[in-house]
Design brief:
mainly alpha, about 0% strand
Length: about 90
């Protein structure tokens, strides 16, 4: 399992914990249930922050790949044009 898949699975588990904690808080309305709910929300925030970093790193890598392809195309076109001129 890749880091990406692990973070997604962790986020889904955290959301399930949040959902249960939210139901308990709605039904019981106790101080302890509110604490558990806030803890679950904090955990979701932490995982989301990690996931955002992974997604951003992926985007940066893709942008670099696209730039490299564009440079290779430009170089290839430049070579082809130079050969045509000869």
């Amino acid at each position: 399992m890749t880091q990406d898949e692990e973070l997604h699975a962790e986020l889904m588990r955290a959301f399930q914990v949040y959902f249960k904690a939210n139901q308990t808080w709605i039904n019981k309305g106790t101080k302890r249930s509110a604490i558990r709910l806030r803890q679950a929300l904090s955990e979701i925030r932490r995982i989301c922050s990690e996931r955002r970093v992974v997604v951003r790193e992926w985007a940066v890598e893709k942008e670099a790949e696209l730039e490299a392809r564009a440079e290779r195309r430009a170089q290839k076109q430049g070579k082809n044009k130079a050969q045509d001129d000869n």
